[in-house]
């Protein structure tokens, strides 16, 4: 480092020199340097130049309880003073991982969750879910059931299993071939589908297509369906209310497990504690990460329903769960999660997400809903997307080569609101502590950005 240059300049100059960022061409990071965030407080963050922003993306859909929350920091520090790490591999464990698994089974009691497996993030959680599903059927004497069916536009992380289940080729193309045995069917995307504008009809069509795929593959070969209760990275796609109940019915009818990928929706973001609970559905396996620790430390969890977990009670050579990570059940992360869950429940963050989210969507529709370049405004709780289009009538989307969507999100950033843009969708996923006053500020900035 040049001793004479201020640290801020050194950081700006050196970001792209040695670090590769996710989801960006390395050269583009050099040309268009990212915001360097150095402080956070509640729903606000500050960059290295001291400029303050409303964090309308909640880090990356994860800072549910807000930044710099003393109860979570204290829980981590207390645990750090006592024990920073001990493994959960055979022969040992640690107290926070025991407490957290009990707590997760308690809050997911309505889903009849019996066991929890810990990992480091969402990609690990889905990977573990696929392994559980395949092993379950082997234990049940139906080892041919190995295939995984997922939805177009779905996102399930980027390990090879999760990536193979993803429903968009942008995530897959340069890493093909994918893992064999993964298949995708249409997702019920009301704004963009070739079938109908009627939600109930769409739900029925997409459910029928899914069942046809299971039958086409043969139910004796299908292990599980994985889906997000609300598709996040695909563009906040909210299915019609009857779709998830239909998924459950199909899984029961065809003897297939239902995996809910709750990595974004888990712990309140969509306005119910779990996204699947919002649809009145009990999955067999649930994947969590992100909001589980409110982003304070990396942690993922795969929650296993009683019926599935009981298969391991049969014993025998196949009943060892040959999955695990050095940091499975990391005590600091588990301590953070216990505090984050307490905050979520004590401060009624789930209820706040439902209330403020509905207000947010209403204000957005009233303010920019008629703009010629706003095609759709959709969401549930504090998971919201504004889809920008070239033409409202034809719904012609902006492509990655079009400047307008990024100009809109850049204008928001310049005016103190961090909003993420995925191709032509502005993604809004702030901390669940958001208030109506924050919403009013964001909507005003967004209105100007869209109009300019
Ligand atoms: C639904 C869903 N599943 C899995 C993942 C992967 O999580 P991670 O990035 O923690 O590996 C994500 C990440 O955004 C996600 O949204």
Unreliable spans: none
Q: What is the C-level CATH assignment of the largest domain?
A: Alpha Beta
Helix content: 25-40%
The radius of gyration computed from the alpha-carbon positions, rounded to a whole number of angstroms, is 22 Å
CATH architecture of the largest domain, by name, is 3-Layer(aba) Sandwich
Query: In whole angstroms, how far apart are the ends?
Result: 40 Å
Instruction: Tell me the fraction of residues in β-strands, as a range.
Output: 15-25%
CATH superfamily of the largest domain: Type I PLP-dependent aspartate aminotransferase-like (Major domain)
Average pLDDT works out at 96
Q: Major sheet: size, sense and barrel closure?
A: 7 strands, mixed
Strands ordered across the widest β-sheet: 4-10-9-8-7-5-6
Shape: globular
Q: What ions, cofactors and ligands are bound?
A: pyridoxal-5'-phosphate
CATH topology of the largest domain: Aspartate Aminotransferase, domain 2
Number of domain modules:
2
Name the structural class.
Answer: alpha/beta
Give the count of helical stretches.
15
Please explain how this structure is put together.
The protein is an alpha/beta fold and 452 residues long. The chain has 15 helices and 16 strands. It has a seven-stranded mixed beta sheet, sandwiched between helices. A hairpin with a 2-residue loop joins strand 11 (374-380) and strand 12 (383-391). Helix 5 (95-107) runs parallel beside helix 12 (331-346) and helix 13 runs parallel beside helix 15 (436-451). The protein binds pyridoxal-5'-phosphate. Residues 121-123, 126, 155-157, 228, 232-233, 261, 263-264, 289 line the site of pyridoxal-5'-phosphate.
